[in-house]
Design brief:
The structure is a homodimer of 175-residue chains. Chain A has 175 residues and is mainly α. Helix content of chain A is 75%, strand content 0%. The longest helix of chain A has 27 residues.
């Protein structure tokens, strides 16, 4: 049932994932679905967490390389279309629906966790200034990538990703 | 009719704006609406362009101040809820609908134009390195603001906005 939900999410976005549609796709009765998940939101949450599953934090010994690994991985996932095409429908729904906003917050916390581990380890090892707020560093790296995927729809190539990471590190050393 | 469309957009997002709903809100017949706009998309485009209307590019004589003016204005508009709550529904629809994707591209080009004028003027006056691609600078400033509004839902305060602008300028001087 979870696999059917993920498939539907990727194909149609949030709007197309009804309990009826999942029931039909998975070939199980609606009652069986409701036995596992009390609501459509609960089912959606589990499927979304599965789609955006957390990566392990890289630990190459270099902050720059760790950030490049994470940012390159994110850029390629953003361009893989399927997962990235679903997120705007969740963001949109979260603007008006508190349950979905809570679900999105949980997904986002999982997502950001990997970046935070890398950044906080670099701060502990004095590779990055302690004055820097880790959430500012996350925003400076993830923000431009998200912006290019959904807002400007420009290419997310290796040059751009490297430039984003190097600018963040350059401005940190500068201060 | 355009005013009614804008009102509905702000209240319900893109999904709630049907020609029926506009007809009812504006108190005019549907035929009258179709006389002005051939399709729902054409009506939406005009309303969206009106909502996200282009700001004049500031020219204070300092790139830093110009960028701060633009970024502060954007941060406050992002937090004014109404306009910012509509955009995700447009982005989501644009993922699956070519007409709406074209509409979003036009809105985005208008939006980015002001940033580009400020950046290109600074490059012409050698206040900013010519090696920098203006679209990279736009992504580095706008990206973190968009990210905080829609993805991490963190606060967009004066400290954050100043930090984003100063980091972009610091990394440019560093290279």
């Amino acid at each position: 049932m979870l696999a059917a939900t993920c498939q539907l999410l990727l194909e149609t976005g949030l709007g197309g994932v009804t309990v009826d549609a999942v029931s039909e796709r998975a070939g199980v009765a609606k009652a069986a679905i409701y036995r596992h998940w009390r609501t459509r939101s609960a089912l959606l949450l589990e499927a979304c967490l599965k789609l955006g599953s957390r990566r392990d934090a890289p630990d190459t010994g270099s902050l720059r390389v760790d950030l490049l690994v994470l940012a390159t991985d994110l850029a390629s996932r953003l361009q893989a279309a399927s997962w990235a095409a679903v997120l705007p429908s969740i963001i949109d729904a979260a603007e008006r629906d508190k349950k979905l906003a809570g679900m999105h917050a949980r997904m986002h916390a999982e997502f950001v966790g990997t970046f935070r581990s890398v950044i906080e380890r670099a701060q502990a090892q004095a590779e990055l200034s302690q004055d820097e707020d880790p959430t500012d560093v996350v925003a400076a790296i993830v923000g431009p990538l998200f912006y290019r995927r959904w807002f400007s729809r420009e290419v997310l190539d290796e040059r751009f990703v490297r430039n984003v990471v190097d600018n963040v590190l350059a401005s940190n050393r500068r201060r």
